[in-house]
Structures are given as structure tokens and as C-alpha cells.
Design goal:
The structure is a single chain. The protein is 38% helix and 19% strand. The protein has a 4-stranded parallel β-sheet with strand order 1-2-3-4, covered by helices on one side. β3, α5 and β4 form a beta-alpha-beta unit. The longest helix has 12 residues. It is globular and about 35 Å long. It starts with 8 loop residues before the first helix and ends with a strand.
Length: 118
């Protein structure tokens, strides 16, 4: 993926669409920033499904996360659900960076199947 350190939405979403050719037959699997990209992609485009690993709702107060652009506006959960046939969230209760509560919110709001690792 382009811009691997900041993982800016303005680079990742066009890359996913134009280079990776993600479409309605694609399952996007994303970890951390990749999970945020999967959600933002599904706001705009139809995909078969998204599998999110360590996804969250906020920038967690981190400047580099804020710079990515994913958290600059509310999540469009209705569009995400409309543009996917399924959403799966994987998370860990002992993740040192993401509070379990944030990971659970992704699953609850997105009506995702949630897989927990303890």
C-alpha cells in the first residue's frame, strides 16, 4: 500500500479502487489502518464483505491517526452496511493500543460478527 506510515485515506482509497480493483466480488481484509480504509472504502463502493482486525471508531488521541484522515468525519454506518454483505470484526481484549470498548463499538454499530481473542 502507498504511504505505509501515515496510511492516509487520500492515497489508500484511490489505490484500492484504481490499482487493486476492489469491487462487489472483493472481500477486503484490513488490520488497524487497513481496517479503517476498508470501512471508508465501503462507504463509497460495494464490496462483498469486510473483515476488520483491530478496528476502532476514534483516532484515540493520536496525531498520526488524525493525520490519516479516516477520523475527520462521522462514520457512515448505513452506507457501509448497504455496500457489504457481511462485516466481521476481530479484536483482542488485551490489545495494548486499542481499548476493547472501541473494538466492540465497531462490531455493535456495524452489526458485525465479532471474534474476540483473550
Amino acid at each position: 500500500m502507498p504511504d505505509p506510515v501515515i496510511a492516509r485515506e487520500k492515497f489508500w482509497i484511490p489505490f484500492m479502487h484504481d490499482e487493486l480493483k476492489c469491487d462487489e466480488n472483493t472481500v477486503i481484509i484490513g488490520h488497524s489502518s487497513g481496517a479503517e480504509a476498508a470501512k471508508r472504502y465501503a462507504e463509497k463502493y460495494k464490496v462483498l464483505g469486510i473483515v476488520l482486525v483491530s478496528s476502532c471508531i476514534t483516532d484515540l488521541g493520536m496525531e498520526t491517526e488524525r493525520e490519516s484522515g479516516y477520523y475527520s468525519r462521522p462514520w457512515q454506518w448505513d452506507k457501509i452496511k448497504e455496500n457489504t454483505k457481511f462485516i466481521v470484526q476481530f479484536g483482542s481484549t488485551d490489545d495494548p493500543f486499542l481499548p476493547w470498548k472501541e473494538q466492540q463499538e465497531v462490531a455493535e454499530i456495524g452489526r458485525a460478527s465479532c471474534r474476540e481473542r483473550v
